[in-house]
Amino acid sequence: MLKVLAEGEAFQSPCALLLGGFDGFHTGHGTLLSEAKKTGLPVGLTTISGGKTGGDLFTFQERETVFDREGFSFVIELPFSDALKNTPAEAFLGALFARLNVRAIFCGEDFRFGKDAGGTPELLKRAAPCPVTVLPLKTENGEKIAVSAIKKRLAEGNVAAANKELRGGFFVQGIVEHGRQVGRSYGFPTLNVSYPARKFPLRDGVYAGFAETPAGNYPAIVNLGARPTFALDEKKVEAYLKGFDGDLYGAEVRIYFTEFLRPVMKFSGKEALQAQLLKDIECV
């Protein structure tokens, strides 16, 4: 069970630590975790939210889902505030190590931290109370595996390619809201979840995917964006769950996107929309 350390809270047991921003967890990050697990110690990590162009891949709550599945013991969540931005590298490390009984540290060769990104792996090695392992960046087809590259694919709607590098895949986590129940009236009841305001914008469109719900997991057709057929401009995640019949209002769910099917379209009426949805459902 992942423990989220509150501000100033300590993790007393001897542990291994991954240092970085960790906006989600990609296959490059996975090499750090594999090495850390070899220590036999509980493994934790730092994660930073905010400060990135276009938004974060995942909210803190979504990251907790990812980190828990990866087997981390604890996480230290750091909002990218002015205070964090202006903390000197040595002071950042001092405050961090005061909270942990850390016996091994792992980071990538491009890890930077502290004010003006002045902290480097070399400084970390000098300041750390334990051995520091710095691993080279992982590449795929000559390209560095990085959050920036994953974001580029998501902006294009190429979620299938992004998911090959993003461990666990791209998803939206949220509470099912009461919608207009229009879908129910023409045979396609949907669940509605808000797209987090600071989350990186996946290209609007209709996607194949699946939903993790308290009632089980279901294949899904997911509409992300406006609903022009009904003159609605608000961006929403609206998912039709194949094979589900029930009520999930107020429940926390995760909607995963696996393949871009088509752009959002305006249909002439109910019959045309129904016909297209029947075609979409054949894709899941």
Q: If you had to describe this structure to a student in words, what would you say it looks like?
A:
This protein is of the alpha/beta class and 284 residues long. It has 9 helices and 14 strands. It has helices spanning 27-37, 60-70, 82-85, 89-97, 121-127, 147-156, 159-165, 182-185, 270-281, and strands spanning 3-5, 11-18, 43-49, 74-79, 100-108, 132-135, 139-140, 143-144, 171-175, 191-194, 205-213, 216-227, 232-241, 252-262. The strands form 3 sheets. The chain has a 6-stranded parallel beta sheet, sandwiched between helices. A 6-stranded antiparallel beta sheet has the order 9-14-11-12-13-10. A two-stranded antiparallel ribbon has the order 7-8. α6 (147-156) packs antiparallel against α7 (159-165). The longest helix is centred in the C-terminal third of the chain and has 12 residues, at 270-281.
Main β-sheet description: 6 strands, parallel
* Main structural class: alpha/beta
Bin the helical content: 25-40%
Query: Which stretches are poorly predicted, pLDDT < 50 over at least 5 residues?
Result: none
Total beta-strand segments: 14
Range of strand content:
25-35%
Write the H/E string, N to C. EEHEHEHHEHEEEHHEHEEEEEH
What strand order characterises the main sheet? 1-4-3-2-5-6
Q: Give me the Rg, rounded.
A: 21 Å
Determine the N-to-C terminus distance: 32 Å
Using the alpha-carbon principal axes, give the shape.
Answer: elongated
Overall mean confidence score, pLDDT: 91
Number of helices: 9
